[in-house]
Specification:
Helices cover about 80% and strands about 0% of the residues. The chain is mostly helical. The two termini are about 40 Å apart. The chain contains 18 helices and no strands.
């Protein structure tokens, strides 16, 4: 699947560039595409520099948690649920605890913590995979739920809105929460359909129902806070949770008589090795994405969507937010740039800017996640992971648009 997808990016880019040259008389498009190749190769190295530090740091702390037995305790706690969702993962396997930590970090908007934990979880799942190059069912479910981007505290979106002068930075908090919940639900249901998982099992229903009740209560509590109080709580809770995890790992490790410094160094050394193996996959995916963007294929698709929307007689204000939605599955930095450009050109509290912010907070860089998570363990055949992840992304975008019309139209 990834082979065909990667080839498809270049074929579509070539067709789009040929059209701009032969029909639009724009031979400069080929220079832009070549320039993009080198720019994306450079960006890959820059991303790797950040990943080296982040992976080294967090895998060091994770090794302390592993040796202290924290990961195993989480695995035991969630064993009944994951026995239904990931039947090939043995009860109490360390992968279950790592998956729990990864989902917690994602929900709190702690991206820098979530990625290294997720890579560690993917390695643990790969140890159970009978194939070295084909994704297992458990790996696919884990990746799709990551790609669905369930986020309870989208602190980064608040920060972008503050930077652009928004009087109420947290205005999009509840829309993001609703949209990201929709994308996660669709991601879970799509994988369950493909893998014939029994979601009607009483244990699964109890966990899903309990999570829905907690999420509803959390939303009700936060909905009653003022904008300034909500922003302050979001920032405090995110940073407090991040440092609390670190302190908890270290203190619990010390209480269990784990040599915390030696354990940290051991895990950090492993993080360095993991990061080193990611560079070829990042270069391959980011360069293909860069060529696709430089060819004008994405912009052409946007104009086609606008024409269809207007032909159908619908309101087309949301179309100005679609650049963020179109590039988000490919590149987080490109989507961030699109969001900021929309805020600057349309106004930070304009309808397109609010939709773009909601989309940014409720979708994930699907192909980046695919390249990093599967690339870290050498997976080449993704099976239904790409389709399910993209369906979750599409659901997040549609939910974001619908919720914004509900809240802001």
């Amino acid at each position: 699947m990834l082979n065909g997808l990667w080839l498809g990016f270049f074929v579509v880019a070539a067709l789009s560039a040929a059209g701009r040259w032969l029909i639009g008389d724009d031979p400069g498009v080929f220079a832009a595409m070549v320039e993009s190749l080198f720019a994306m190769a450079k960006l890959s190295v820059e991303v790797m520099v950040v990943l080296f530090g982040t992976l080294t740091l967090w895998l060091g702390f994770l090794r302390i948690a592993e040796r202290a037995g924290l990961v195993e305790r989480l695995a035991v706690l969630l064993g009944p649920l994951f026995r239904r969702l990931m039947p090939e993962v043995p009860p109490g396997h360390p992968a279950l605890g790592l998956i729990t930590l990864n989902f917690t970090a994602n929900a709190l908007g702690l991206d820098n913590a979530a990625t290294p934990i997720g890579l560690k979880a993917m390695h643990a799942l790969q140890s159970l995979n009978p194939s070295q190059t084909t994704a297992s069912n458990a790996q696919i479910l884990f990746l799709v739920l990551n790609a669905s981007s369930l986020t309870l505290l989208p602190v980064s979106i608040f920060m972008y809105r503050v930077q652009q002068g928004a009087p109420d930075p947290t205005l999009v908090f509840l829309p993001i929460l609703l949209a990201t919940s929709a994308s996660t639900l669709v991601g879970l249901l799509s994988v369950a359909f493909m893998q014939r998982l029994r979601l009607h099992d009483p244990v699964v229903l109890a966990w899903l129902g309990g999570t829905a009740l907690l999420l509803g209560g959390f939303m009700a509590l936060l909905a009653g806070l003022s904008a300034s109080a909500l922003a302050a709580l979001s920032s405090l809770l995110g940073n407090l949770t991040l440092f609390g995890l670190i302190l908890g790992f270290v203190l619990f490790g010390a209480l269990r008589r784990v040599p915390v410094y030696e354990a940290f160094v051991e895990g950090a050394r492993e993080g360095f090795e993991v990061a080193k193996n990611l560079l070829p996959y990042l270069v391959a995916m980011l360069c293909a994405i860069g060529v696709l963007r430089a060819s004008g294929a994405l912009e052409l698709g946007l104009e086609g969507i606008r024409m269809l929307v207007e032909w159908a007689g619908w309101d087309s204000r949301f179309v100005d937010a679609l650049p963020t939605a179109l590039v988000k599955p490919f590149s987080g930095s490109a989507a961030r740039a699109m969001l900021i450009e929309t805020m600057q050109s349309q106004g930070v509290d304009s309808f397109p800017a609010l939709v773009a912010a909601t989309v940014q907070g409720s979708t994930e860089t699907t192909f980046y996640v695919l390249a990093v998570y599967f690339g870290a363990v050498g997976i080449q055949r993704a099976r239904h992971a790409v389709g399910c992840a993209l369906l979750a992304d599409l659901s997040g975008v549609l939910a974001a648009i619908a919720v914004c019309y509900w809240f802001f139209a």
